Amino acid sequence: GAIAATVAVGGRPHQVAFDGTHVWVVNNVDGTVSKIEVGTNTVTRVVAVGAGPNGLAPVGTSIWVSISSSDSVSRIST
């Protein structure tokens, strides 16, 4: 029941997904997605995706991100 780690990411983290190896976080205010190394609890990559990202889904070797401001989705290669 105790918090094991806290990882700082971008502004207004909105959604979290696990791809089997890493945790991905949508940072709504920053227009980015953060990739977190689970073993070390560190952000290893930040990808700019445009204003208003609000959802994500891991599929195979990609992370799909919905972008509400542009009515689109973007694919990030993991």
Describe the protein's architecture and organization:
This protein is an all-beta fold and 78 residues long. 0% of the residues lie in helices and 56% in strands. The protein contains no helices and 7 strands. The strands form 2 sheets. A 4-stranded antiparallel sheet has the order 1-2-3-4, with no helix packed on it. Strands 5-6-7 form a 3-stranded antiparallel sheet, with no helix packed on it. The radius of gyration is 12 Å and the shape is globular. The model has no long low-confidence stretch (mean pLDDT 95).
Give the SSE order as H and E letters. Answer: EEEEEEE
CA distance, first residue to last residue: 31 Å
Shape, per Cα inertia axes = globular
> Would you tell me the structural class of the helices and strands?
mainly beta
Count helical runs: 0
Give the number of DSSP strands: 7
Strand content: over 45%
Question: Which strand order do you get reading across the main beta sheet?
Answer: 1-2-3-4
**Weakly predicted, low-confidence segments:** none
Alpha carbon gyration radius:
12 Å
Helix content: under 10%
The overall average pLDDT, rounded, is: 95
What does the largest sheet look like?
4 strands, antiparallel
